[in-house]
Amino acid sequence: MNEVEMNFKIVNKDGLLNYLRTLVTEKTQNIKMTYFGKHGDESFYIRIEEISDKNGDKKVLTAKGSFVTTDGVNQRKEVSIPISESPEKYIEFLTLVGMELRDSKSKVRHFFHIDDLDITIDEWNVAELGNRLEIEGLEEGKVKEFATKVIQYCDPKPSK
Q1: Whether this model's pTM surpasses 0.70
Q2: C-alpha distances out from residue 36 to 7, 42, 49, 97, 102, Å
C-alpha cells in the first residue's frame, strides 16, 4: 500500500483533541515499537509494534520504504503483517538476517476516522519527538484539505 500523509508537530494538543472529539468518537491505544534498520540506510526500517487497547493486544511487523515528499505531502510504500509468535522470535530472525536493532519507543495514540481519513495524535515517551499529528488517506487533496482545518493547533510547517 502507498501511504499519502501529512505530519505536523502539535503545539496545542488539548485544543486539537477537543476539536476532533466533536467530530467523531476517539479510539486510544498504547503502542510499543521496536525499530530495526540496515547498516548505512537511515531511510528504510522495519518495526515491531505491540499494540494494546480496549479490544485486547496485537502485534504487527511493518516495513516502510523511503519517503517521497512533495508540497508537504509524504508518500511511501508500507507493508504490514500480523505477528503470531512472540516478538522475541521476530527480533532474533531480523538480527540473524542482518538487520540492526536501532531503538524502542512507546506512545499513546489517539485515533479518529474522519471522511475516509485516518487522523492520529501520538504522545511519545521521547521528549524530542513531542506530540505529533498524522493525517493519512488515499487522496492527496482530502489530506491537504483536512490539514487546513487543524493547522491552528500545530506548527504550520509539515514534518516527516
Answers
A1: yes
A2: 22, 10, 12, 11, 5
